[in-house]
Amino acid sequence: MIKHIFSDMDGTLLNNQGIVSNENIRVIKNSHIPFTLVSARAPMEMFDTIDKLNLTSTQIAFNGGLIYKRHEDSIIKISVHSLDINNVKNIVNKIRLTLPNVSMSLYTADNWYTDKIDAGIKLETSITGLHAQVVNYQQFLNTNKDDIFKIMFIGSDKTQIDELITTLDKLNLSGVSIQQSGNNYLEITSDQAKKSRGIQYIQEINSLDKSEMAAFGDGHNDIPMLKMVDTAVIMANAMDEVKKYATHMTKSNVDDGVAYGIQNFIEV
Asked: What are the chain's domains?
């Protein structure tokens, strides 16, 4: 019997407009099974979905870099794994020197920052409904006191993403995890930030067996999460590499695949 469900957001629970469908909302609420969002997103980008689903359980942001609970318009931090500030400075300086046109964002627990509004930032705003604060990165990094959890790049195409990966590899960084969360998205978090860590925390505090947990996902960064559960439900739109970890295949994110998965593979 499944006692807890974990779900990725973009490409999984949300449709291509970044919205959770009415059918997904209905089925999740009616299941009465504790439901945790496990996302590369920042908490503020998760609030709308949390509210629509009336979630009160622990949530996982920044690929596991921040485990938290929603409390009114803020959060209660449970576990924090942020980036080392020297790594952030090295990455920002190197990328702006070698790839000045790439879209780059920095995230704290409460805010989204960029140094210019480009096509990538506009795309992200259209998906999340949020707006980045424009800053001078050098000044910001010298004065900011808040933990930085994620650096996000949005490439214009695969070639730019490949260039990013090559440039970052040459920095020989330690203590970071570099993952693709979509075809043109590259995200850097602490190497302690893994979706599996968030799952493990919830598993331990609720004394859950692997057989009592289910997870939904579609991307590379979902693989550590999918390995943690016995019921791994993969979206029809998932990357081929991710489909290898499926115990069940469901419909796509635009066809209410999470709702279909709950009804056909969990509530049976």
From this structure: 4-80+193-266 (3.40.50.1000), 85-190 (3.30.1240.10)
Tens of pLDDT, residue by residue over 62-108, are: 999 999 999 888 899 999 999 999 999 999 999 999 999 999 999 99
- Write the single-letter amino acid at 146: D
Amino acid identity for residue 142 in this structure: N
| Strand ranges (E), the chain | 4-7, 35-37, 59-61, 66-71, 74-80, 103-107, 112-114, 133-134, 150-154, 176-182, 185-190, 213-217, 231-234, 248-249
Please report where in the chains the tokens 């791994």 appear, as a residue. 232
Nearest alpha-carbon partner for 50 in 28, 27, 17:
28
pTM above 0.85, yes or no: yes
The neighbouring-strand residues paired with 150 are 107
